[in-house]
């Protein structure tokens, strides 16, 4: 919005010319989102405590978690507020991709809010059933997939990392593919959010990686040079992902071990969906498997554990998702978290290298 309000005044005040630069706006979107999250978190945490939105800890989990009983959750509301406000302030709000990303984030945030609200306010209710959640997620992702499919000029070709000449056209199958990407990343982040800072760290890293991807994809000269598909207008999504980076950084200040607040489904579901949506818009969907590799590892560990237990009656891991396996092996919680952050950073670097290695 500031772009639309202030840039036109640059003829009067030359300094305002800086608002035309995407790099300037994405940096200040990150800083703004950080400050909103950082400054408001203490009062939001107090408010969540006052209305007793405290996390119930399952007895069947690692014993080290029992001391977390009552930790305020649903802190994701603050992350969403910071992301949306910073994006509206610093992005070009006439850009349809920006509104699509914000819509996806808000929609998944409402699903998470409904789940958390029923969990934490109902009399020990379990929140939304898995079926209700997956149907709501699927319908929202389907709406996004259809939007892209019918968006004039949008390509349904699949961009495969490392192979610049192999771009299979999925045609109508692009819609279920986009649904899979968005719903999959939403639930993978949700599963990962099981230790202090474990989800928000890799979300921050993935958001930073996709800030670079969106910036490059939206820049004709850079995308032509790198032989990647140029998508006019996709660059504005870099403001959105930079806001996610900043808001996550602010939230991490309070969610790091020992956490004084959890994000709740109202945070994990939209953050995953936001990354999935940006991956689809920027035509770097498969890259999300690498950038969000920690989320993929966490989700696969659950799939393998459940499949093994159902088929053989035996577990592969001491406990799934895999972060609990390391806890059960005696790793302290912060050690598990930081080591998975290190893996997330390495995977993000590797994924960015694929922009050049084609
Ligand atoms: C999402 N939620 C955390 C918090 C957070 C199929 C099965 C793998 C499902 C999975 C499950 O229930 N996943 C739900 C993970 C929960 O965190 C809350 O949920 C929000 C995210 N959606 O924001 O509000 C717990 O995680 C801990 N936590 C922290 N710090 C944080 O910053 O310590 C969360 C955020 C919190 C807190 O203890 O209560 C969660 O773990 O439930 N189930 C599991 O993950 C369970 N695994 C399991 O049952 N494994 C089985 C089979 C089914 C694979 C097996 O290995 O045999 C584990 N989780 C729990 N207990 N709570 C183990 C048992």
Rounded radius of gyration (Å): 20 Å
Give the helix level as a range of percent.
55-70%
Which overall shape is indicated by the principal axes computed on the Cα atoms?
A: globular
Pairing-aware structural class of the strands and helices? mainly alpha
Mean pLDDT: 94
What ligands are attached or bound here? Muraymycin D2
Poorly predicted tracts of residues:
none
Domain count: the total is: 1
Order of helices and strands: HHHHHHHHHHHHHH
What does this protein look like?
- With 358 residues, the chain is mainly alpha-helical.
- It has one domain (2-353).
- The chain is built from 14 helices and no strands.
- The protein has helices at 2-6, 22-50, 76-90, 96-121, 130-149, 174-192, 200-217, 220-226, 237-255, 265-281, 287-291, 293-312, 322-328, 333-353.
- The longest helix has 29 residues, at 22-50.
- Bound molecules: Muraymycin D2.
- Muraymycin D2 binds at residues 55, 57-58, 60-61, 65, 68, 73, 190-191, 193-196, 255, 259, 262-265, 268, 302, 305-306, 309, 315, 319-321, 324.
Q: How would the blueprint of this fold be written?
A:
Layout: H1 2-6, H2 22-50, H3 76-90, H4 96-121, H5 130-149, H6 174-192, H7 200-217, H8 220-226, H9 237-255, H10 265-281, H11 287-291, H12 293-312, H13 322-328, H14 333-353
Q: Summed up, what is this model?
A:
It contains 14 helices and no strands.
Features:
single chain; 64% helix; mainly alpha; binds Muraymycin D2; 358 residues; globular
């Amino acid at each position: 919005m500031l772009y639309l309000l202030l840039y036109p005044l640059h003829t009067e005040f030359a300094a305002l010319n800086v608002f035309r630069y995407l790099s300037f706006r994405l940096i200040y979107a990150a800083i703004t989102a950080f400050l909103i999250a950082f400054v408001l978190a203490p009062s939001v945490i107090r408010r969540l405590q006052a209305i007793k939105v405290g996390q119930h800890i399952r007895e069947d989990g690692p014993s080290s978690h029992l001391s977390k009983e009552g930790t305020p959750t649903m802190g994701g509301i603050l992350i969403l507020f910071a992301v949306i406000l910073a994006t509206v302030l610093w992005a070009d709000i006439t850009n349809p991709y920006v509104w699509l990303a914000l819509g996806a984030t808000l929609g998944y945030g409402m699903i998470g809010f409904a789940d958390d609200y029923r969990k934490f306010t109902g009399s020990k209710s379990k929140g939304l059933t898995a079926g209700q959640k997956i149907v709501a997620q699927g319908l929202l992702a389907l709406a996004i997939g259809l939007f892209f499919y019918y968006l004039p000029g949008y390509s349904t070709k699949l961009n495969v990392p490392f192979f610049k000449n192999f771009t299979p056209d999925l045609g109508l199958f692009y819609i279920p593919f986009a649904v899979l990407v968005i719903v999959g990343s939403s639930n993978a982040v949700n599963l990962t959010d099981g230790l202090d800072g474990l989800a928000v760290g890799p979300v921050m890293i993935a958001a930073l990686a996709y800030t670079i991807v969106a910036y490059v994809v939206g820049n004709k000269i850079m995308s032509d040079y790198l032989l990647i598909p140029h998508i006019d207008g996709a660059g504005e999504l870099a403001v959105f992902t930079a806001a996610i980076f900043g808001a996550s950084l602010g939230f991490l200040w309070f969610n790091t071990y020992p956490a004084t607040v959890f994000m709740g489904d109202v945070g994990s579901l939209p953050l995953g969906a936001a990354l999935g949506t940006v991956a689809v818009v920027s035509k770097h969907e498969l890259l999300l498997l690498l950038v969000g590799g920690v989320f993929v590892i966490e989700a696969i560990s659950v799939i393998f554990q459940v499949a093994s237990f159902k088929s053989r009656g035996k577990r592969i891991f001491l406990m799934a998702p895999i972060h609990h396996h390391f806890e059960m092996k005696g790793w302290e919680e912060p050690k598990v978290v930081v080591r998975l952050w290190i893996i997330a950073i390495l995977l993000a670097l590797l994924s960015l290298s694929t922009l050049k290695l084609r």
